[in-house]
Amino acid sequence: NAGVMQNPRHLVRRRGQEARLRCSPMKGHSHVYWYRQLPEEGLKFMVYLQKENIIDESGMPKERFSAEFPKEGPSILRIQQVVRGDSAAYFCASSAKTGLEQFFGPGTRLTVL
Amino acid sequence: QQQVKQSPQSLIVQKGGISIINCAYENTAFDYFPWYQQFPGKGPALLIAIRPDVSEKKEGRFTISFNKSAKQFSLHIMDSQPGDSATYFCAASIYSGGSNYKLTFGKGTLLTVNP
Questions:
Q1: Which among B4, B43, B91 has CB closest to A91?
Q2: Tens-place pLDDT, residues B50-64
Q3: A99 touches chain B (CB under 8 A)
Q4: pLDDT for the residue B97
Q5: Cα-based distances in Å from A87 to A20, B23, B88
Q6: Is A22:A90 a contact under the CB 8 Å cutoff?
Q7: ∠A73-B40-A109 over CA atoms, to 5°?
Q8: B22: Cβ–Cβ under 8 A, 6 or more apart, which residues?
Q9: Could you tell me the CA-to-CA distances from B108 to A18, A48, A110, B87 in Å, in that order?
Q10: Which of 35-94 (A) contact B at CB < 8 A?
Q11: A25 touches chain B (CB under 8 A)
């Protein structure tokens, strides 16, 4: 009974490169949420997706960030032209339905040099 | 604007003692208050949660106390054990509304329980 899987666990990028973070939800879950945790901060909501649909992206920065959850495959959080301020832990969570408990993955630690 | 304020930032407790972590919120529309436990290198895991229709909820050694008028809630860990050493996050969301999935987290409390 695999939980939420995220990869890579650690990602190092230089300024200006692209970062792709992947999230495979728990089996049977079709709702995915992305959160960002900056150093010394709590997790902050970024985006909520269902299969092939973005439901709420109110927490996403307007530029350089995008997310998708295709019909097949994992959810992807994409950060273009990364800057040092993007360095953070990015957590994915999934649920079976909206409003039910969110199960979190182990996170991807992104470091931008 | 920090909607959920958590304190203390860190806490050291002796084995067998009581650990108390406090949170205060600003948005009166919040009506779901979960606590998450996070071990190093892991994602947060739901520990216990409360709705504002009750003032207290207990699950084993973990108790949430809720004060709606003060807009505060707290986590009590009785008989704290070294295995409880972790970071604890309080959170809040609008359960009854259309955005009940959007958890707002506090900054976290690093709990260390000494043997």
A1: B43
A2: 988 889 999 999 999
A3: yes
A4: 59
A5: 13, 27, 22
A6: no
A7: 45
A8: B6, B7, B8, B72, B73, B74
A9: 30, 22, 20, 6
A10: 35, 40-45, 48, 56, 58-59, 91, 93
A11: no
